[in-house]
């Protein structure tokens, strides 16, 4: 196994990686800088489109991967990466005015999901499904920092992270109508000492064996977790503290791309903020789910 920095760019807060099969490049965001990024891992070069706001996820449209579904603070937008032009599709309800979007992902039918947070307030975030005409349907409540999303291989379970609560939840999922119900706790980090020094769970993905790969902000690692036994199967140590998210990519989906963030005042982590490629894991992921609308 090897862990290698593959981006020349160092992001302030790299997040939301999504592998683009059509170009063999990696989309991700530099959230608070307001950049939607596209990395060519072969060259290390990152192209970027700058927007005036906080961008937290990027998902290509299935019909045209150069068109991207993104969030910009409180708005859902469609971005043309080649021209840099974007259009507003929908927006969060007016109250509370400080709420904003965070992470997001699509299920295997191309149906998009996203979560929110209200900075400085506990349990004011929600989980939303993005329906036709880009309507937002609120599905679940009482999250503090909505984050990583993944689905089981049989599409019967949806996993969801609340970073500030240090919990991974799971829902019963109906792939036909996109309903998530019966929210339960998969792992409560505060109840297990093995997680004491691992910061908070952030973004995540799932492999072809149904195991979760969870990035740990403040924990300098990615964990492979078995959702059936709730046991940690493997720990991948990373060369910087703030590990934000991960996804599988490459021609065979056997490279784990990991986004990271810089940390103010830290000088002994020169690669903090880079995108890393983890190879030789002995497993792989599946093709990513693009947005269907």
Structural features:
globular, 293 residues, 0% helix, mainly beta, 4-stranded antiparallel beta sheet
Question: What does this protein structure show overall?
Answer:
The chain has 293 residues and is mainly β. The protein contains no helices and 24 strands. The chain has strands at 2-5, 14-20, 25-30, 35-40, 45-50, 55-60, 67-72, 75-80, 86-91, 100-106, 112-117, 125-130, 136-143, 146-151, 157-162, 167-174, 179-188, 200-206, 212-217, 221-226, 231-237, 242-249, 255-261, 276-279. The strands form six sheets. Strands 1-24-23-22 form a four-stranded antiparallel sheet, with no helix packed on it. Strand 16 and strand 17 (179-188) form a beta hairpin. The protein is globular, with a radius of gyration of 17 Å. The protein starts with a strand and ends in a 14-residue tail after the last strand. The model has no long low-confidence stretch (mean pLDDT 97). It is found in: Cytoplasm. InterPro entries: 6-blade_b-propeller_TolB-like, Regucalcin, SGL, SMP-30.
Offer a concise description of the structure.
The protein is mostly beta strands. The protein has strands spanning 2-5, 14-20, 25-30, 35-40, 45-50, 55-60, 67-72, 75-80, 86-91, 100-106, 112-117, 125-130, 136-143, 146-151, 157-162, 167-174, 179-188, 200-206, 212-217, 221-226, 231-237, 242-249, 255-261, 276-279. Its EC number is 3.1.1.17.
């Amino acid at each position: 196994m090897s862990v290698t920095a593959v981006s020349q760019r160092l992001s302030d807060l790299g997040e939301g990686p999504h592998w683009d099969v059509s170009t063999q490049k990696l989309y991700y965001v530099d959230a608070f800088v307001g950049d939607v990024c596209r990395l060519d891992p072969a060259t290390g070069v990152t192209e970027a489109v700058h927007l005036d706001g906080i961008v937290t996820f990027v998902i290509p449209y299935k019909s045209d991967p150069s068109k991207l579904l993104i969030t910009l603070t409180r708005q859902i937008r469609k971005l043309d990466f080649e021209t840099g032009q974007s259009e507003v599709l929908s927006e969060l309800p007016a109250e509370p005015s400080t709420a904003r979007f965070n992470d997001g992902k699509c299920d295997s039918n191309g149906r998009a999901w996203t979560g929110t947070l209200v900075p400085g307030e506990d349990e004011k975030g929600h989980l939303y499904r993005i329906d036709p005409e880009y309507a937002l349907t609120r599905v679940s409540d009482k999250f503090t920092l909505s984050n990583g999303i993944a689905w089981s291989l049989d599409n019967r379970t949806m996993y969801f992270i609340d970073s500030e609560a240090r919990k991974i939840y799971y829902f019963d999922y109906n792939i036909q109508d996109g309903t998530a119900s019966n929210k339960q706790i998969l792992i409560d980090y505060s109840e297990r000492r093995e997680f004491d020094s691992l910061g908070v769970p952030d973004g995540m993905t799932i492999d072809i064996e149904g195991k979760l790969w969870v990035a740990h902000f403040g924990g300098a690692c990615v964990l492979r977790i078995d959702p059936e036994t709730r046991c940690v199967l493997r720990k991948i140590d990373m060369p910087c503290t703030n590990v934000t998210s991960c996804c599988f990519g490459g021609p065979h989906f056997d490279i784990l791309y990991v986004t990271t963030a810089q940390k103010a005042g830290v000088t002994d982590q020169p690669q903090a903020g880079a995108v890393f490629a983890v190879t030789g894991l002995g497993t792989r992921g599946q093709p990513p789910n693009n947005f269907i609308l």
